[in-house]
From TrEMBL, chain A:
This is ABC transporter. InterPro entries: MlaC/ttg2D, TAT_signal, Tgt2/MlaC_sf. Transmembrane segments: none annotated. It comes from Aliiroseovarius zhejiangensis. It holds the Pfam family MlaC.
Amino acid sequence: MRMTGNDTSLTRRAVLGGLAGLGLVALLPGRAWAAISASKAESLIGQVVSDINGIINSGASEAVMIKRFEGVFAKYAAVSYIAQSALGVDGRSASAAQKREFTKAFQGYIAQRYGSRFREFQGGRIDVVGTSEGKNVYEVLTQTTLKGKSPFDVIFIVAKRDGKFIDMVVEGISIVKSERKEIGAMLDRRGGDLNKLIADLKAG
Amino acid sequence: MYDCCQDKDINVTKPFSKISPALAGLVLVALGACAQAPAPTGYDDPHEVQNRRTHGANIDLDRALVSPASTAYGEVLPREVRDTISVFSDNAGLPGVVANNILQGNVEDAVHNTVRFLFNSTFGLLGLFDVATDIGLEERDSDFGETLHVWGAPEGDYVVLPFFGPSTERDGFGILVDFVLNPLSLALPTEVKHLPKATWVLSKFGDRYTFGDTIEEFYNSEDGYELMRLYYLDSRRYELGIEVEDNELEDIYDAYDG
């Protein structure tokens, strides 16, 4: 997990945690040693939510909001994993360079696609409700309240391993799953030409 | 148990207006006899050819009529007025929601929504203002499709309805019943009988206008039909609290290795 080192106590805790972790590794070989706690997952999503709240009510232009949303996505999400998941089996034959380029294109595409909806969210508010534990992930439930609409749920799927979120499930709709379908269809239309898809995604 | 539900053929195209509510009640009691609906899996679409045709017709209808009307509606009336109409329409629909809450045996929501309705109809000036949300009585929607689900009716096949769009056999039937059996419309005097439905249509125009970008995205999407099906089924199952085994997602979540 990458952290900005502007908090000394946090750094110290991370070091101590790391030492404790090393001890555990010795005891439990093969176990992922950096697994985060449920409350850590929840506070990470709390930061995501407060960043997004700031963006939707900033009054900034749509282009600026999209750019800032892309920043949040890049910081807290496992972007390359989500991108590869969306690419699915089609991505297996891709070269390392293609994968890298696709991830970059995908990040901009997601920001554009979901960020452009923030106009509809103005005056709204997102709150963290609670966290439940899965096998390798935590599911952090958030609720979005828009003016005059009943609140809707967004669940962030946070990897225990490193605290990155690897999916968002909006009222039961997984972004990874729907983007896998979408990206798959886009690739089919281009006769499976990944380079063309990357170029088109980058062009917006 | 499973079979008894399967045998009930829910015919969504049957004209329902001629059938008395009592008869409808009988059919529903028969459905209610199946206590537990089989959990749906996947996205089977046996009527795909017909569904795609209806989907295309809906988009044509939208482009020709609904979208221009919504744009006009959105541009002529300021947001405050559109919101007020939408709040009024939601409030007028509340007696129907309460009826469904009762049919589901959900006492808490029935009371919640009754108090909400009384509050907004009085202090909220006939439902023009949603004052109930401000005191913690937020919107809790329900519909007859959900009632059927609670009674154990299976989801049925995926269907695309004219005008209403993505649905299932169970939910399509639910829409018909909700439409015919709106308690408020039955209780209102003739002159204003159709006011709730008229404002409902306007509030849909308002939604079409507000969420226009999102809807356009479906049109521009490379396979809008399949995405809509995925979105509808996943969100509806989530809303009804139907657990669906989803190995595809489980595998993706499990495979993450940083």
